[in-house]
Amino acid sequence: MAGLAVDNGIVVGEHLRSADPDVFAAGDVANAYYGSLGRHLRLEHWSAALNQGSVAAANMVGRTTAYDHVPYFFSDQYDMGMEYRGYVEPGGYDQVVFRGEVATGEYLAFWLRDDRVLAAMNVNVWDAGDSITALVRSGVRVDAARLADPDVALEDLRADSASGAA
Where are the domains positioned within the chain? Predict the structure, then answer.
């Protein structure tokens, strides 16, 4: 493929530049480096093209810009809407914590390793996206019981860690 490194997509660094300094890749063709994850990931969702395109363009015109989004995708399945933020490989977690009522189809699910939220999915809960992204990005340790408690704001979990409460 034109001499480019390919591994489940065109391998690009945090600036979305390939091994050829004149070639950039974005969207579902790019196996992009995610600094927040410390790894490459190919995200096959239109959100990758939406978010990576402007970063690639900025770098093409000489404005050094790193791609630093938390991975995101959504899917609607009949009456169930789901949004997933972060990333965890199968078996790359040691705990799953649920918040809300799974039986009613309105809940959050969090995948943790060493008390840190690696990824989360909101299912028919539409006001938690930014808080989930901030929690995933922060990498702070959280108390699983407080994470499961819908009366505890997700923002308070990050504050707990900052104050040494977690």
Answer: 10-60, 72-163
Q: Tens digit of pLDDT per residue, the chain (166 long)?
A: 578 999 999 999 999 999 999 999 999 999 999 988 889 999 998 889 999 999 999 999 999 999 999 999 999 999 999 999 999 999 999 999 999 999 999 999 999 999 999 999 999 999 999 999 999 999 999 999 999 999 999 999 987 766 666 5
CATH no. of 72-163: 3.30.390.30
The pTM score is 0.88
Instruction: Output the 3-class SS for the chain.
Output: CCCCCECCCEEECCCCECCCCCCECCHHHEEEEECCCCEEECCCCHHHHHHHHHHHHHHHCCCCCCCCCCCEEEEEECCEEEEEEECCCCCCCCEEEEEEEHHHCEEEEEEEECCEEEEEEEECCCCCHHHHHHHHHHCCECCHHHHHCCCCCHHHHHHHHHHCCC
